[in-house]
Amino acid sequence: MTPQWTPLTDYQWAAISPFFNLQRKRKHDLRQILDCIFWLLRTGCQWRNLPPTWPHWQAVYYYFDQWKKADLFERINAAVNQLDRQQAGRDPLPSVLCIDTQSVKLSPMIAEHRGKDCHKLVNGRKRTYVVDTQGRLWVADADAANGHDGALAVPLIVSMLWRCEERLEKIFGDQAYNGVFAKNLAGWGIDFAKASRPESARGFVPVARRWVVERSIGWTNFFRRIVKDYEYTVSYSVNWLYLANIQIMLQRIQVQHQT
C-alpha cells in the first residue's frame, strides 16, 4: 500500500485500458479521468473541489456515472484480481472465500438505506465484503446497518458463483452467517466454515481465515472517500469499494512487474 496517491503508470494503464473504448476521439483523456477518480478516492475531496488544472468535475463525474451503470468497475476489479493471483502463482479464480461486514456512519441528510447497528452503535450503513484468502475483494454490497449479516449476504451468493464459477468450494464466516446464509450455501453445494474466536479467549486473538477479511476492511482506512459513506445510493458506495480494491491490486501488479 503506497502512502499517497500516484498517477497510473504505463504498465497499470495497459492492464486496464482494454476495458475502455480508446478508438473514439474524445475531448478528455480517459487515463486522466481515471487518475482524477482515484485521487478523489484517496483524498476524499468533493467533486466540485477538483483542482482547476484537471478536467471539469462534471466531466469526471459523467464518466464515473456511466462506467458505474455499465458495471465497468466490477469487471475491472475481477480482471485485476485474476491478474494479481496469476502473478502470485495461483489459479485465476479462488476456491475459498471469506465474508464479513463493516458498519460505517452515513453522511447527514441522507435517508436512503440508513439504519442503526445497535451492537456497534453506528447509525449508517453496513458493507458486506467477500474476499479470497489473500484479501482481494471479489464481491461487495451495502445496505442499512440494522440488517442482519446473514440475511444481507444471501443475495450475494449468485454473484459469488458468477465470479468464481465452479471453483468455489468453501466460505468462511463468523457466527452471524451460520443460519440462513449457510443453509442457502448448502443448497448450492458449497461448504460453510464458521471461523470464530474461542469463547474463553480474552483480548486480541487472530482467528484463522477471518483475520484476512478484517485486514481487507482495515485497508479502507487508506481511502478517505470510503472511511465514511457519503453516497446517496448504495450502488455508488459499492463501486467506490471496488475502485479501492482496483487501486490496491494495480499497486501490487506494478511492484511485482518491477521485481
Condensed summary:
The chain has 259 residues and is of the alpha/beta class. It has helices at 10-16, 30-43, 57-69, 72-87, 149-153, 157-164, 180-187, 210-219, 234-258; strands at residues 96-105, 115-117, 122-132, 137-144, 170-173, 191-194. Strands 1, 2, 3, 4, 5 and 6 form a 6-stranded mixed β-sheet that branches.
Q: Would you count the extended β strands for me?
A: 6
Strand count, sense and barrel status of the largest sheet are: 6 strands, mixed
Tell me which oligomeric state these chains represent: single chain
Structural class: alpha/beta
User: Approximately how much helix is present in the residues?
Assistant: 40-55%
Quickly count the domains. Answer: 1
Percentage of β-strand residues = 15-25%
CATH topology: Nucleotidyltransferase, domain 5
Choose one word for the global shape.
globular
Order of helices and strands: HHHHEEEEHHEHEHH
Specify the CATH architecture: 2-Layer Sandwich
How confident overall, as mean pLDDT? 91
Low-confidence stretches: none
CATH level 1 class label: Alpha Beta
Query: Radius of gyration, rounded?
Result: 19 Å
CATH homologous superfamily grouping: Ribonuclease H-like superfamily/Ribonuclease H
Count of separate DSSP helical elements: 9
